[in-house]
Each structure stands twice: as structure tokens, then as C-alpha cells.
Amino acid sequence: MQRMAFADKNVMTLLILAAIAIFSLPLVLPHITHESMIYHIYLHMIAFMVSIFLVIVSVLAYYRGRSRRLLFMMLALSMLTLAEFVNFITLTGNVPALLLPIINVELAHLLILAMLVLFMTGVIKMG
């Protein structure tokens, strides 16, 4: 019975990743002939997909364990997913570079910093 639950999670994860790949095709296809950009776009698309997989695993782990460390790890992976999504849509040219005007920093960089802080918080022993 436990084996079946594991297989269902794999199927669910594969369906989510396949849906992301399919829905991202209209964003990727216009750049398919740009050799210098397509690999960069694929890199961020794959990183986005892997980060979604990690968020799914971390959400399941958090709901199973309900510890503060798992919560911070889940939030950190969510920040990584959001950062990769921002990088992906920016690279495809659908959204201009998202700069925070006051500090002149890209949103994706700020999200990665937030991810690192959340990971650090999860790693350091919380009272």
C-alpha cells in the first residue's frame, strides 16, 4: 500500500512538470532558432521545473513533519521557484527586466537573497 502512495506522488509530479512544459511552449518556440538564447531559456525553464518538484516534496515533508525548519526550507524553495519563474519570463521577452526602482536591483536577485536567508534560518537551530 505504501508503494502505491509513492507512485501516485510520482505521477502527480510528472503531470505537473508536463503541464508546465506544455504551457511554456508558446513562450519558448519563438526563440527556438536563436542559438545564443534558447539554451539560456532552457536552463531557466529546467531550473524552474526542478524547483517546482522540490517545492512539492518540501510541502509534503512539511505537512508530514510540521517543524519550523521544514517550514523555512519550504519557503526558501518557494522563493527559488518564484525567482526562476521571473528569470524565465524575462528571458523569453514577455516581461521587461523587473527592476526595483529605489535600489536598482532585479527582482530575481532579491528573491534569491530571500531564499538564502530562509535557508539559513532553517539551518540555524530555531528556539
UniProtKB/TrEMBL annotation:
Name assigned to this protein: Uncharacterized protein
Regions crossing the membrane: 40-63, 70-90, 102-124
Keywords for this protein: Membrane, Transmembrane, Transmembrane helix
Classification lineage: Archaea, Nitrososphaerota, Nitrososphaeria, Candidatus Nitrosocaldales, Candidatus Nitrosocaldaceae
